[in-house]
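To: structure subgroup
Subject: Chain for Friday's discussion

All,

I'm putting the inputs and outputs inline so they're searchable in the archive.
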Amino acid sequence: MTVQRKRRFLRLLLVFAIILIALMIVPFFLPVTAANADPHTLADPNGVFITLNGGEVYYIAYGDENAPAVVFLHGLFGSTFTWRKNLEVVAAAGYRAIAFDRFGAGLSDKRESLDFSHAAGADLTAALLDALKIERATIVGHSAGGNVLAHFALRYPERVDKLVIVDGAIIGPSGPPPFISALVAFPPINRWARVLLGALLTESRLAEAVEAFYVKRDWLTEADLAGYWRPFQAKDWDVGLVGLVRDSATNRLSDNQVARLAQFAPRTLIIWGEADTVTPFEIGRELAQRLSGAQFISYSGVGHQPMEELSDAFNRDLIAFLAR
């Protein structure tokens, strides 16, 4: 290599090093989301905050404390608000209906030091049951919450009464590949992710994302969209969302773990929207085949959120299963 080429190479190397250092330093000087509301100011009238597993958890409950418990687990972008059309109806049918926000979501704790994985979500579910003095419960899990449900059933089988999987992300594509989790854990990339989220996730863009979950959107009101936007007004919502990606590497269940779920099949209801584009209907049918003996109900012309889009039928079928 000639002297001139060596100098050119060194200059390129220097430029690359400067760019790399800038990319690692610059995000810490850029502003992140301006949302700074105290979650307590955003809570529902009957909302409760409780400290569990090292963090503050937000939950709502309806019904007699001594009635059979039904715990509802939300998915990504979801929260207790996801179940607003179901909780009181289930409680009126004679059950104690409970929904809570997992770490990193809704109004629950979003500190970076917390574990946001689905396995940790299962442990958090068990901790909430302990705090509420509930030995066994029916667990209802939607989308990513369906995977939390699966982790819970495998870790705490003695605490499962029944399982209800709603368009659950248990098999098939599930979250980002592991290397993405490792990248997001790197502080500069973590910070860049927060900066970009704060800049790009606006109320109108979230509304577009939420609307894409449904086939029939006529029922959606401004109040519905505002309810989905509410958690994104809470302090550190971006930390939580990035953390959910950071800790997602261990979420996916192995084939052996899915096979072990078959032990619950006689006590399992699977509900699916046939027009779901997030967890497609084919995945629901395959899951029903792998959990042979589970009851399978699907709704024609319904998307990813049957408990909202077709709430009357969903509530009717859920309550009938609970009473079976």
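Points worth raising on Friday:
The mean pLDDT is 90.
The longest helix spans residues 3-25.

D.
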